[in-house]
Design a protein that fits this description.
215 residues; two-stranded antiparallel ribbon; alpha+beta; 6-stranded antiparallel sheet
Length: 215
C-alpha cells in the first residue's frame, strides 16, 4: 500500500510540474482564419466595394485597397476564389523557414479577378499583428466576399498574466479577427440590404453573427 501511495504521489507531482513547465514556456503560434460569404444583390460593384471598405475601416489601422477594372463585360456564371501562395516557394529561405516551423507565416492571399481588394493590418499592441486580405468577386447572381486573416499568437511565459489582462480589456486576437470579418459583411448588408449567406471557413463559425448589429 505504501508503494502504491508513493507512486500515485509521484505521478501527481510529475503531472503538476509538467503543467507548470508548459505554462512557463513562451510560445508563438501562427493562426489562420478565412471566411467566404455569398452576397445576393443587384447593387453596383462600386456601392458594394465602398460598403466593404467602410466596414473594414472600423477595425484596422492601415489598409491598401484597389478596385481593378474587370476583364469581363458581363459577370461570369461562377465567382472567383482567393488562393494562398508562398512568394518564397522553392527558395533556400523557404526551406529554412519550413525547418523552423514558420512556413505558414509567409503565405499571402491573392485575389485574381476580384473587383475590389484590400490588404489591411491591425497594430501589434491589440491584435498580435493581425493581417487581413479581402477579395470581392462579382458573378451573375451577386458577389462572393473572401476574407483571409493571419496573426502571431503568443502564449505562456512570464508575460502571460499581463497579456491575459490586456485581452480581457480589448479582446483576444481571435475575437478581433472575427469582428473584422463580420463588420465588412454587416456594413454591406446595412447599406445595400443584400441577402448574405456564409458558405465556408476555418475555424468553424456557428450561428448567423453577421446578421447582428454592430457592437
Amino acid at each position: 500500500m505504501y508503494k502504491l501511495l508513493v507512486a500515485i504521489s509521484l505521478a501527481i507531482f510529475t503531472t503538476s510540474c509538467g503543467t507548470l513547465n508548459n505554462a512557463l514556456v513562451g510560445k508563438t503560434k501562427i493562426v489562420e482564419y478565412y471566411r467566404i460569404f455569398d452576397i445576393k444583390t443587384n447593387s453596383e460593384r462600386q456601392s458594394i466595394a465602398e460598403a466593404a471598405s467602410n466596414g473594414l475601416g472600423r477595425n484596422v489601422n492601415d489598409a491598401k485597397e484597389a478596385t481593378p477594372i474587370p476583364s469581363f463585360s458581363t459577370p461570369p456564371d461562377e465567382p472567383g476564389r482567393f488562393e494562398l501562395v508562398n512568394p518564397f516557394e522553392g527558395s533556400k529561405f523557404a526551406a529554412f523557414a519550413a525547418m523552423s516551423g514558420g512556413s505558414i507565416g509567409f503565405k499571402i492571399a491573392t485575389c485574381d479577378g476580384a473587383v475590389w481588394t484590400a490588404n489591411a493590418e491591425r497594430g501589434a499592441r491589440v491584435s498580435d499583428n493581425l493581417k487581413i486580405t479581402a477579395c470581392l468577386f462579382q458573378y451573375k447572381q451577386g458577389y462572393h466576399l473572401n476574407v483571409y486573416g493571419t496573426f502571431m499568437k503568443k502564449e505562456g511565459g512570464l508575460t502571460q498574466i499581463s497579456r491575459s489582462m490586456a485581452h480581457a480589456a480589448v479582446g483576444t486576437p481571435e475575437e478581433w479577427t472575427e469582428k473584422t470579418f463580420l463588420d465588412i459583411v454587416r456594413n454591406i448588408r446595412k447599406v445595400t440590404g443584400a441577402e448574405i449567406t456564409f458558405l465556408e471557413g476555418q475555424p468553424k463559425m456557428g450561428g448567423t453573427p453577421w446578421l447582428d448589429p454592430y457592437h
